[in-house]
Amino acid sequence: IEPTALYPLKQSLKFYYSGIKRYKMNSLNIGELENLKMQLHYDKNDGIFYWKNIKPRSKYKIGDIAGCINKNSGYIQIRLNQKTYLAHRIAFAFENGYLPEEVDHKNHIRTDNRILNLRDSNRILNSRNLKNYNKNSEFAIYIQKNGNFRVRPKFNGLNYHLGIFNNIEDAIKIRNKFYQEKGFKNEHSNH
């Protein structure tokens, strides 16, 4: 089953903006982690959280899937004790006992919170997963009017001109060599 099929979409913008701090949450104290473990069961094989301890008169039942997909960010979020948590961050903390600066989805699917798909990361490594939004380029390779291929990657906010090539294969080879020299790994890049 696709994880996105299991979670409802959160429609409320008020809910999204009222909890904006949660996206900067870099720490999770031991008490919070223990409280989350008392309330939630995490299945590391399917990456889904289930309610295991609920308050009386709750709309949820024990065994129900916990959380929903935030329609703005695409991440699964779980609301508990007037605080919103990102599911991939608490999944990582459940399994590893700590919360890194950032948690990265290896396969870039924000709803796939299986532990084998999550890794310790930081802002620089995680930003390498961002999609290239320039519609005229194929990951830093631009097609010129004369049919040549210009390689112009961007790294750390700077544009680099690596040359103009007659065929796409040479352009790709130069571009990949550049990214490899800059420390990009295939797992951190869609290049």
In short:
The chain has 6 helices and 13 strands. The protein is α+β, with helices and mostly antiparallel strands and 191 residues long.
Question: Key features?
Answer:
191 residues; alpha+beta; 4-stranded mixed sheet; 3-stranded antiparallel sheet; 6 helices; 26% helix; disordered C terminus
Describe the structure.
The chain has a 4-stranded mixed sheet with strand order 1-4-5-6. The chain has a 3-stranded antiparallel sheet with strand order 9-10-13, covered by helices on one side. The protein is elongated and about 70 Å long. It has 191 residues and is of the alpha+beta class. The chain contains 6 helices and 13 strands. The protein has helices at 3-6, 13-18, 30-39, 87-96, 123-127, 168-181, and strands at residues 9-10, 40-43, 48-51, 68-70, 76-80, 83-86, 102-105, 118-121, 141-143, 149-151, 154-155, 158-159, 163-165. It is 26% helix and 23% strand.
Q: Main sheet? A: 4 strands, mixed
Q: Total number of helical segments?
A: 6
Low-confidence stretches: 9-26, 132-138, 187-191
User: What integer value in Å does the Rg equal?
Assistant: 21 Å
Which helices and strands, and how do they pair?
Blueprint: H1 3-6, E1 9-10, H2 13-18, H3 30-39, E2 40-43, E3 48-51, E4 68-70, E5 76-80, E6 83-86, H4 87-96, E7 102-105, E8 118-121, H5 123-127, E9 141-143, E10 149-151, E11 154-155, E12 158-159, E13 163-165, H6 168-181
Parallel strand pairs: 1-4
Antiparallel strand pairs: 2-3, 4-5, 5-6, 7-8, 9-10, 10-13, 11-12
